[in-house]
Amino acid sequence: MFRTKRSGLVRRLWRSRAPVEGDGETDRGTHGSGGCCMGKTTKVAKSNAGSEAELKALTHSILKKIKEKQLEVLLQAVESKGGARSPCLLLPSKVDAKVGQQSYSLPMLLYKVFRWPDLRHSSELKRLSCCESYGKINPELVCCNPHHMSRLCELESPPPPYSRYPMDYLKPPDSPDSGPSSSETGGTTYSAPVGLSDSLALQESGERAHWCVVAYWEEKTRVGRLYSVQEPSLDIFYDLPQGNGFCLGQLCSENKSPLVQMVRAKIGYGIQLTREPDGVWVYNRSCYPIFIKSATLDNPDSRTLLVHKVFPGFSIKAFDYDKAGSLQRPNDHEFTQQPRTGFTVQISFVKGWGQCYTRQFISSCPCWLEVIFNTR
């Protein structure tokens, strides 16, 4: 009976392995044209029968050596695709496995099998802050839970042609040849007074200091109140098993647009916003790309603000406090119009905006977020 249950868990895990190219889901998650996450990813062709059989035999062999309770933890994480909270899977870090001519550590093998078949090196990964192994260097036991990891989003160089904002749009409003008003561009100016007043009200009410506030928008209409964030990590989602955080599905929206309703339903597990020692990170937990604009993602000498595409399973450092201080340029509309509480980052779900999209400005996107950072 003991062996039967263990074998059953192993078989269920193998059936839940990450698909390779041609299975649809992986294509959405790791491939596409353009986007900041494309720097380190390569297309993975379907395995031939020999390598598939070898990988299956090796995976079964390793999994059968793992304790039954640990197999259950791994299965919970894999079958829920990271939606259910699962504890760390602590296993020896120095156990190597060989597939063909390539050797992998035990964690790397599990990450490749259950999340990213195209993963080549551990330098492509970022451990999530919820993991016990976060911040530890070369521990004897390392967490091998595939959903306690994310792929690092590599910024493109040179910048992509889409979503470049002409500097005319960034001139101060009183400039003689200024561009469209902020309400036309979808910038933060028209929403900043609302966000500022709400966030100041939170402080005056005696609540402990927040490090950011989040506003949810559907096209040009803000839905619900600002969400004040005090905890180091926040889940923003539409439908997340055991979800705890900012649930967009609970907000009352009067927008009946079919496109808005379709995108809203695709938000799914959404994103995770985390304040870490080196900055604020955004992890895309959903099944579709997100698009981010942040001043600290740009080259300091750049004359354009870019929108960066982040694929499912990838993380990007969306905001850097040190860079924010040095980037303030007195003649830039983007900076002079920020609320006193700090800088903002804009995040659109599913649909991008910019010069290579039909939507030129984020205010035309169906569902998007405005994150206002408190840098004081």
From TrEMBL:
Gene name of this polypeptide:
smad7
Region listing for Disordered, in residue ranges? 164-190
* Annotated GO biological process: anatomical structure morphogenesis; cell differentiation; regulation of transcription by RNA polymerase II; SMAD protein signal transduction
What is the name of the protein in this document? Mothers against decapentaplegic homolog
Q: What are the subcellular locations of this protein?
A: Cytoplasm; Nucleus
Query: What are the UniProt keywords, alphabetically?
Result: Cytoplasm, Metal-binding, Nucleus, Transcription, Transcription regulation, Zinc
For bias kind Low complexity, which ranges apply? 176-189
Its GO CC terms are: cytoplasm; heteromeric SMAD protein complex
